[in-house]
From TrEMBL:
Highest taxon of the lineage: Bacteria
Pfam families the UniProt entry points to: PadR
Positions of the Transcription regulator PadR N-terminal domain: 15-89
Name of this chain's protein: PadR family transcriptional regulator
Length: 206
């Protein structure tokens, strides 16, 4: 499993997670991801998506389940998430959620965090918070030391910005963890698809 997870790209994780909502063909995947503005998180092109689907199939993380020949449209192969693929999504999110050295991957892990149990997400985010607090303390100490040595402020602008950003990130994490612990909002995949989800799928198939 670890080798499979190590080979999965961020786009691959998003494709596998999408198939967790239901079987679909690559054209529908692209349309749905763009409708949801997932291209904010990862570059989505026809070529990279089809290439990624092929790699995931060879790795046994998704499987072909049929071919759509509707109307005069070209044949479209439909894929399904395998059990190995479902497990790989969870493992990838589990690995990336507490890390602070992969900011791009963290955004995707956060977007797919609902694939894990709520309590596990709280624990993983708590580990992330500890790591961020350590970096903030080290950075703040270095900044104060530099000011004590009368380093000109112009040389500390980036450090000041990073300190503020880290402090805000920690505050945001604290608030999120508290909301998760209070069960302020639903978690996990809904048992019954929402009307919005059904409309998204209908639009993506057209």
């Amino acid at each position: 499993m670890r080798d499979a997870v190590d080979r999965i790209t961020p786009l691959g994780v998003m494709i596998l997670a999408l198939l967790g909502e239901g079987d679909m063909h690559p054209y529908e995947m692209i349309r749905l991801m763009r409708q949801r503005r997932d291209d904010r998180l990862v570059t989505i092109t026809n070529g990279t998506l089809y290439h990624t689907v092929g790699r995931l199939e060879r790795a046994g993380l998704l499987a072909e389940v049929g071919i759509d020949r509707e109307g005069n449209r070209p044949e479209r192969t439909t894929y399904s998430q395998t059990e190995l693929g479902r497990e790989a999504v969870g493992e990838w999110v589990r690995r990336e959620l507490p890390r602070i050295d992969h900011p791009a991957e963290f955004r995707i892990a956060l977007a797919e965090a609902h694939n894990l149990d709520r309590d596990e997400v709280v624990e993983l985010l708590g580990r992330r918070r500890i790591a961020l607090a350590g970096v903030l303390a080290e950075l703040s100490a270095g900044r104060e030391s530099a000011r004590g040595r009368q380093v000109p402020e112009q040389y500390l602008l980036e450090v000041d910005r990073e300190t503020v950003m880290l402090a805000h990130d920690i505050d945001w994490l604290d608030a999120l963890i508290a909301r998760l612990e209070r069960h302020d909002f639903a978690w996990g995949q809904p048992m019954v698809p929402s009307a919005r989800y059904l409309e998204e799928r209908k639009a993506a198939r057209q």
